[in-house]
Amino acid sequence: MWSGRFREPLDPQFDIWQRSFGFDRRLLGDELAASAAWARALEKAGILDSAELARIIEGLQQIGKACQANPKVMDEADAEDVHHFVELQLAKEIGETAYKLHTGRSRNEQIATDLRLFARRSVEAVRAQLAGLIRSLLARAEELGSTAMPSYTHLQKAEPVLAAHWLLAYAEMFFRDADRLLDCHKRINVLPLGSGAVAGSGLKLDRAGMAKELGFDAITANSMDATSDRDFEIELLGILSLIAVHLSRLAEEITIFSTREFGFITLPDTLSTGSSAMPQKKNPDATELFRAKAGRVSGDLFQAMMTVKGLPLAYNKDMQELQLPLFDALEAITGTLEVAQKLISKIQFNTDTMNLAATTGFMNAMEAANYLVRKGVPFRRAHEAIGNAVHICIERGCELDGLTIDELREIRPEFSDDFYGSLKLQSVLANHDVPGGTAPQQVSAALAHAKRRLDSLKGEHRANA
């Protein structure tokens, strides 16, 4: 592609080492689409005649069909990168006319365009997967109904919540991730073609027409920025890292709750493994790998940021390495989301164990303090009184309802017989009756609202696609 300037061939080892076709071949479809749009722009500019355009378009289509039918075509190619591959294959298909396609164009703008097309498709695919995971979370939340479980702060029992409320908390995280992807899509969907190597194309080309043909919302405003901008990739990697973190948090709780010590969840055999040494083991390998993927994807983000941090304008060969973290992160996230949806759909919730855990360990202590508040006791005094009651119960090995009314009145005279009713699980849950709270009617409303948001998310995905 650039041999005219040189009088000696590349060192064979260097030649192989500096090539990118081994990984950027996955951009072939994007390269073919962008090249077709470029060819049509060249025809409008008078560089190609209609017959030449037709041969180029037909040749590009044949390359796509041949590679789809027989991927070995790419394995056997002696190409430096995906752009070189297309040029070589097009020359085989249509002859000398193939070499007109690169008129006024640079690989710098080509890779920027291909990556944006790839990132755009990836955003749509990940949003669709997030919708699938959210759908599974909502289905299981609806199925759990009135099942309660402990909530935790500092990994210590805090207050009882509906299990559906717990699942909806993760749905909220993934809804935010989907929103971030949609917002990122706006900055991805800008066309660099026409930027040339650095200063803009030397031809009067219809950039807006190419943008429309390729489904871009706008064209880039500055050629130097356009060929060297990878902000959209780093932003996308940041969102993927956050998705990985959310999956890791969910995985950690599932891992803990599936232990015999908790017993809230039984993992499906199909998504678990055993021990080669200990016959009794059922290991949560899926969720453990979810946690590890968060480190991997976050590492991809860090790699990308460190690659661009000191680069001068405009394109530099360093940017070739930026493709790898994007490909790797997307592979990790899409695979994890696929397994996560299956896992959520198949885990067994041990509802009796969960409900029992929600009624022991002084889970109603805060509601007991609120009982005194409703009797006119200042909260700090009420907090102290219930703390004293808990201390007595710990010494005796009982719960708050194990104290007699006389014993309670020795702590505070405001206690009455109605105190015991306020300690019951359903009463404790029902009293958290604020939007966003765990009262059954609030959770039902939140679930219905989440279903509407899911429908909207899927509608946005179809519109973008």
Descriptive tags:
Fumarase C, Chain A, domain 2; 3 domains; 20 helices; 465 residues; 6 strands; mainly alpha; Ribonucleotide Reductase Protein R1, domain 1; two-stranded parallel ribbon; two-stranded antiparallel sheet
Task: Note the gap between the termini.
Answer: 35 Å
Rounded mean pLDDT score: 96
Decide which structural class fits the backbone: mainly alpha
CATH architecture title of the largest domain = Up-down Bundle
Give the oligomeric state. Answer: single chain
Please give the share of residues in helix.
55-70%
| Alpha carbon gyration radius | 30 Å
Beta fraction of the residues? under 5%
Helices, strands, pairings?
Layout: H1 12-17, H2 21-24, H3 28-44, H4 50-69, H5 72-75, H6 82-94, H7 107-144, E1 148-153, E2 156-162, H8 163-188, E3 190-191, H9 207-214, E4 218-219, H10 223-228, H11 231-257, E5 265-266, H12 285-308, H13 323-346, E6 348-349, H14 351-357, H15 365-374, H16 379-396, H17 405-411, H18 419-422, H19 425-430, H20 440-464
Helix pairs in contact: 3-4, 3-7, 3-9, 4-6, 7-8, 7-13, 7-20, 8-11, 8-20, 11-12, 11-13, 12-13, 15-16
Describe the structure.
This protein is mainly alpha-helical and about 475 residues long. The protein folds into three domains: about 10-105, Fumarase C, Chain B, domain 1; about 110-355 and about 455-465, Fumarase/aspartase (Central domain) (Fumarase C, Chain A, domain 2), CATH 1.20.200.10; about 365-425, Orthogonal Bundle (Ribonucleotide Reductase Protein R1, domain 1). The chain contains 20 helices and six strands. The protein has helices at about 10-15, 20-25, 30-45, 50-70, 70-75, 80-95, 105-145, 165-190, 205-215, 225-230, 230-255, 285-310, 325-345, 350-355, 365-375, 380-395, 405-410, 420, 425-430, 440-465, and strands at about 150-155, 155-160, 190, 220, 265, 350. The strands form three sheets. The protein has a two-stranded antiparallel sheet with strand order 1-2. A two-stranded parallel sheet has the order 3-4. Strand 3, helix 9 and strand 4 (about 220) form a beta-alpha-beta unit. The two termini are about 35 Å apart. The model has no long low-confidence stretch (mean pLDDT about 95).
